[in-house]
Structure formats: structure tokens, C-alpha cells
Amino acid sequence: MNAELIIVLTLLVSAVAMFVLNKPRMDAVALIMLAVLPFTGVISMGEALAGFSDPNIVLIAALFVIGEGLVRTGVAQRLGDWLTARAGKSETRLLVLLMLAVGVLGSIMSSTGVIAIFIPVALRIAQSTGMAASRLMMPMSVAALISGMMTLVGTAPNLVVNSELMRSGAGGFQFFSFTPFGVPILILGILYMLFARRWLAAKSDANQATNRPSLRDWVQDYKLTDREHRVRVTSESPLVGKTIRELDLRTTSGARIVAIERLRRFSREVIGPSANTELQADDILLLDLVGTDLSPETLRQKYAFEALPLSGDYYTDRSQEIGMAEVMLGPNSDLAGKTVVDAHLRTRSGLTVIGRRHGSVASEGSLLNQKLEVGDTLLVIGTWKDIRQLQMNPAHLLVLNLPAELDEVLPASGKAPQAVACLLLMVGLMISGIVPNVQAALIAGLLMGALRCIDFDSAYRAIHWKSLVLIVGMLPFSLALQRTGGVDMAADALVAATGDAGTQVVLGSLFLITAMLGLFISNTATAVLMAPVALAIAKDMHASPYPFAMIVALAASTAFMTPISSPVNTLVVGPGNYKFGDFVKIGVPLSLAVMVVCVFLVPLLLPLYK
Prior knowledge:
By secondary structure, the chain is α+β, with helices and mostly antiparallel strands. Among the domains are: 215-402, 2-Layer Sandwich (Alpha-Beta Plaits), CATH 3.30.70; 481-605. It contains 28 helices and 10 strands.
């Protein structure tokens, strides 16, 4: 063992020790190693920084953007809602469905990409069910890693091993050559996590629901129940073709239009009413009928309205398009002393006043002619766009409270089909191999931007830079170990120790060494290092290369034991609030179980000798 190898191994052990202690934070450790490794003389500074241009790093960043596009358009929300609905109140059923969904999707695209896409789905599920995110993130990462064992394109190590097979003169694996191994291991992983979840936090901490009021809280506080009505303007209505200013419904009937649902091409769009808005046939009006002498039935007959059903208290079912806010009249507001009608709040802000509170008492009856006072709290309703505009221009009204539902508002809710189309295009390109995976992800991300599923500011915010720095900082160890002879030393030792042993012992040793290397370097780098060793052993034993190549590929994906074994694990560390020891506690028993299954199945399904 030369001096350079000793230094590199010392740095590697130091990095692992700091990871275990969680001091300093993991990305800081990676940056420290990035700065120190060039001092050894084994690699240059340029080689240490080469990870920033690695296609896999760019791919991960692009997949974060794809995932954010799916969040902004509501695809992730709908998937999470579907999983939650299917699971009901059963955490067991939820865990099974989530792991199956990740495993199946990960078999046809990058497992790292699947995790980037499913992290917001899992966070939404955790928030809606009150479950700790840690109960979902670890099972999800396990399923994503196992998904790499399902098909040839499931993960990069499979392609690395397949390429080494072809370079050695053997035919490569088929697309579904991995499936007979991946399916049983996925079932094993699900059963294991149903048991091992007890070792993860059961109560939510970082994901506790916000303390802000909800829309339903305000419906009760301001006594809004039974004031809401949803009607369709028929073609016979006298309102068709007239502007809201001309109609002046507030004066003639006491009814106020809160919002209008209007057909736009193939979907309905909710718009905020203004004085110049002209009503059209088939418009759906959301009305507030407080303080009016007309009954809802009389109003419908007078204006030829068709009554439509409501599914939420005071339009809470429209929270994606319509919001509420509590605002206050400041000491310098020129609205003090004016009535709601005289204040022309809708003309100024596009928002409708539906509640007033002076002190702690909510006003009842019609608000239209009540005089406003400094310190009054008003409840306004309108589009989220108008509410955000009011926040930026607080000249007359100060925004006091925004509802918890604001966090779930989708900036591009009407773009879900376009986002799904971009995702399918990316998956299709990855499966076909027409372009490299990173190029497929970049194309899909740019298309999402062109179709307005996501904008550049949101794309940059979506990238988890901490995870990328951690991955890049650890990549140079692979090159350093190769150059100092550490890899060759390990290979020679393995051949010497297992050369005369039985084939299952050889396969088990290959699996164990590959998995142990994955503790310190990426699983892709592990496959690069171990695939030639496996094929050399097969040649020495005059055996078929396929079982040896397969055992290395499967072992490379058995990267459950540390957060740095795979980018998949690294990505869930933050959202799951995990420590280094959590992966050791969950991953070591599972890795041993997978090893036993693989050592049994591989020689059974891939004969050692022909």
C-alpha cells in the first residue's frame, strides 16, 4: 500500500466519520473534500471539479425542474390525492401503493428522476394525512433503488455492466433480463418496509400543518354559510350583453357577483368581475346574497338563472382560483368614513368585501351601507392574482392574514395535460435511446417552459443545490482510488480469496464487495470498477459471464445503507429529515436480505455453465 493510497483512504474515512456525526452538514463535508483532495497530488483541481459538468449531475438538476413542473400544474397533487383516496386511512395500503408506483415508473426511467418527481407527491400526502414525511421518504427511496433492478434502462449501473459485457465480446442483456430478479426483490422491499417503518418517526414535525386560518375558519367566523349561490346565465336572461356597471345588481337586488366562470376553449376559467365585464350566455356566476330582500328563487326567476349545485362552504371548493384575505384599514387610509359602496373597493382592487369585523365582533346583515372605520378588519374575496396585487400595493388596506390554502394554489393549474405530455416525451426518448438521457430531460424541461408549465425563476428555485454539491463533492474519490491502486488491490484480493471456492460463495463475495464499495462511492462508479473484476473471475472459472455481470448490477443498486450510496438516498435526506444512522439502521438488514435472494436466484435463472 503506497503513501498516496493511505492519504486518500484517510480522507475517505474522515469524510464518512463526519457524515456519521452529521457535523458539519453533508454538503459542507463534500466541499471540504473537494478542496483537500487536490493537495494529495493524485488528482488535479480541474478533475476534482469535473463533477459539475458530469451529465448525471445535469440530468438530476433537469429532473428537479421536471418535478417542479408537475407540481405547479397539479399533476403531483392529483397523483398524491389519488394515492391517498385509494389508501383511505390505511398507512399500510398507502405505503404499498406508493412503493409500487415508484417501482414501476422507475423501471422505465431514471430512478433519480422518479424520486425528484415523487418527493413533492409524498410531501403533499404527508401534509394532507398528518403523517411524518420520514415514514414515506425512506420507503420511496428503497422502491426507487429496487426499480433499477427491473429493466435494463432502470439505472445507470445496468447500462455500465451491459456495456462491459459487450466490450468483452459477449452479447448484452435484453430490456427485461433484469425483471425476474427485480420483481421478487420489490415485493421483498415492500414487505420489509412494512415492518421496518416502526424504526422511523411516527409523528410529523417539520411537516405539521400551518397555524394560519383556513377558508372554512373564516366561513364560520364571518357567518358566511348559506349566503353563497352558483347560477348559470341562460340565453333568455336579460343580463346577457350587459356590463356589470350597467346592471348594478348590488343596488337593484342586493346580490354581488363574487366571480365568473367562463368557458375558454376546452375548459372553464374563473375571472374576477369588473365594472366593464360583459356577461355572456352560459356564464356561471358565483353570488353573495347577504342582506337582500329577494329570495334566491325570486332572483333566479327575475334574471332567468339556472341554479347549480355547490360542493364547498362559500366556494371553498374553488380555492385553486378564488381566495380570501383579511385586510385592515390603516390609520392613513382614505377609506375611513366611507361605505363599502362609496369606497369602490372592487374598482380599486378587483376584490369583493364579504365580511367586516370591528374588534372581535363580526358584522351581520348587508355590508354595503356600513361605514368603515380605522382598525376595521375586512374579509375580501377574489382571484389570487388580485389578492397578491393587494399585498404589493398596501396603500389603503393592510393584508393581515392569508389562508392556509394559499400554499396549495397551483400557479399553472390548467397546464396539467401539457406537463404530462412533456413527461411522456422524456420517458419515450429515454426508452428509445434516440438521445442521451440528459438531453431528453433538457428537452422536456424546455418544452415545459415554452408551454408555461414552469418559468425560469421557479426552475432555478426547484433545483436542490445542496444535494448536487454533495454528489459532486464525493465523485473525485472514485478517480483517486483508481489512480492510487486501491481498486486493483481490492480486485486482486477478491480473486485470491474466492478463486477455489464454490460458485455461490464467489457470487456472494462479489455482491458483498460491490455493495460495500457503494458505501463510499456512487453506485455507477461501483459498477464501473467491479464489472471488469466480475468478468475476469468468470473467465478464470470458464463460466458464463452473465451471472457474474448480473450479480454486480444488482449489488450496485443495493445502495440502501448510507445517504451517499446513491443520489436517490441523497435526495430524500432533507425532506425526510434523516440522519446518517437512519440509513444504516434500515439499509443493512435489507441489503443482507437482498443479497441472499440474489445469490439464490442468479445461478438458478442464469446458468453458470452451458
